[in-house]
Amino acid sequence: MDNTSVTVFTMTAYAVMENNKYLQFSIFMLLYILIISFNLLLIAVICCQRALHQPMYVFICNLAANGLYGSTGFLPSTLILLLSETYEISLPWCLIQIYWVHTYAAVEFHILAVMGYDRYVAICYPLHYHSIMSISKVCKLVALAWLYPFSLFLMYFCLTLRLKFCGRFIHFKLFCVNFELVKNACSNTFYHSIVGLVLIAFIMIPQLLMIIFSYAHIFRVCLKSSKESQVKALKTCIPHLLSVINYSIGGFFEIAQSRFNMSGTSFMFRIIMSLYYTLLTPLINPAIYGMANQAIRMHVLKIYRVSNRLASC
């Protein structure tokens, strides 16, 4: 870091948004408030209701906590930069944001993989569910979902910390990502890119295989079950499947922008797509689990009715 020549980068995407920046500031502020409110409500309901102290809800709670973590790593700096005149971000904050946003994305997928395994045990081994998904095992799975991506990305991130930067522009992004920052490096980054692809494989492939394995066995069991059991299994899996699809769409757009030539797409489309998994995922997940999960929905409605009664007194 001592031989770094460039210590400030210009986020060029904000210049394109100059004309409507106050409107966009209001929209982003509203979205951030909604993300915080929805996820905190989900966490509070799960923590306060003893009936929800089950493995599935523990994982949902962690998903909501990760949504708060990821959005906080991105939205506050976006609000500041929108009101800035120079749209500049310091190298230290850019590096912090890179670690923050990338670990958020990795943790999200790990939690979804663990949730897939939980659904597999619940549907394929219902009589042994509580013995298999013991408190100690749930704690280990939660710890693994957080510590594995944090540790793995840190090893790769150390390579970025050693780079010297000559360029000073970050294009098509409202926040710092590793691939865009590395483009500004003075030295050859071929080795760095190869390590990045290996990292993506280590983060994505085991978890993807876990999800595929879980649903392959769920599908096999459902084929042998009664229609009533199939409907019950479908209801319990739909929220998780929607979250996986939602995350996959955002992840696909992010990887496509980083690794492929997207010059044929419009500037604004690229900016919007870069926001998908950092903005829409933590906003949509609470809605998915709040609306689709009957137990959570029931407790949320109960809180709403009580608050209405108190307000009318």
Task: Explain what this protein looks like in three dimensions.
This protein has one domain (about 10-310): Rhopdopsin 7-helix transmembrane proteins. It has about 325 residues and is mainly α. Helix 2 (about 20-50) packs across helix 11, helix 3 (about 55-80) packs antiparallel against helix 4 and helix 6 (about 135-160) packs antiparallel against helix 8. It is built from twelve helices and three strands. Strands 2-1-3 form a three-stranded mixed beta sheet.
Please provide a brief summary of the model.
The chain is mostly helical and 313 residues long.
Topology, please?
Blueprint: E1 8-11, H1 13-16, H2 21-48, H3 55-82, E2 88-90, H4 91-124, H5 129-132, H6 135-161, E3 169-170, H7 178-182, H8 190-223, H9 227-259, H10 267-274, H11 276-292, H12 294-312
Parallel strand pairs: 1-3
Antiparallel strand pairs: 1-2
Kindly list the characteristics that best describe this protein:
12 helices, single chain, 3-stranded mixed β-sheet, 77% helix, mainly alpha, globular, 313 residues, Rhopdopsin 7-helix transmembrane proteins, 3 strands
Q: Which structural class should the secondary elements be placed in?
A: mainly alpha
Helix content range: over 70%
Number of strand segments = 3
Largest sheet: 3 strands, mixed
Low-confidence stretches: none
How many helices? 12
* Overall residue-averaged pLDDT value: 87
How many separate domains?
1
CATH architecture: Up-down Bundle
